[in-house]
Amino acid sequence: MKKNLVLYFSVYGTAKKVAEEIGRQTDADVVEIIPAVPYDSNRDHYSALARLAKKEHDEDQRPAIKNEIVIDGYENIFIGYPMWWYTFPMILYTLFDRYDFSGKTIIPFNTHMGSGDGGTYSTIQKLEPDAKVLQGLPIEMNDAETGASTAVKNWLKSLNL
Ligand SMILES: Cc1cc2nc3c(=O)[nH]c(=O)nc-3n(C[C@H](O)[C@H](O)[C@H](O)COP(=O)(O)O)c2cc1C
After folding, report:
1. How confident is the model over 57-113, as pLDDT tens digits?
2. Atom of ligand 1 nearest to the CA of 11
3. Minimal CB count within 10 Å: which of 28, 62, 99, 150?
4. Over the chain, what HEC string results?
5. Atom of ligand 1 nearest to the CA of 85
6. Domains of the chain (ranges plus CATH)?
7. pTM for the structure as a whole
């Protein structure tokens, strides 16, 4: 079994590209967090997705995850997501509610259009107090489109895993 796992949630595919790049560079298993109700990935429908995401956020919803995710046995778990309304998508709360990352090393990364990580790396540490959360990597959406291989490489080097 591999010791690294990359978990990611992505609607437009950019966090997915970064996840796959991290997977290649760390020889990790790469697993998507799949929502039970799919989000519309057509970028022309951005306004509708923005409204839905805002509603989920304002109502503190926990959108269901469709797939069973196995985290047992992995030491290092990369967790990636896009920035939505200055924080992570609510389905990440579902993930942290459902799975216990105690004793694991969590390494966050995210895609964004200007908000950086929006404080989400500290939120993860608060939600998972018994996990070790390492310095994450925020990547602008345009840079993420190509997988950001050099940025990922330099970041991984700095982590000293
Ligand atoms: C509903 C929604 C809300 C967003 N809110 C923010 C935001 O608050 N800050 C930001 O920098 N980018 C924001 N974005 C831009 C996304 O972070 C960007 O599109 C992201 O790279 C998409 O990741 P994906 O391709 O993996 O789905 C938002 C995008 C969507 C769809």
Report:
1. 999 999 999 999 999 999 999 999 999 999 999 999 999 999 999 999 999 999 999
2. 27
3. 150
4. CCCEEEEECCCCCHHHHHHHHHHHHHCCEEEECCECCCCCCCHHHHHHHHHHHHHHHHCCCCCCECCCCCCCCCCEEEEEEECECCECCCHHHHHHHHCCCCCCEEEEEEEECCCCCCCHHHHHHHHCCCCEECCCEEEEHHHHCCCCHHHHHHHHHHHCC
5. 8
6. 4-159 (3.40.50.360)
7. 0.98
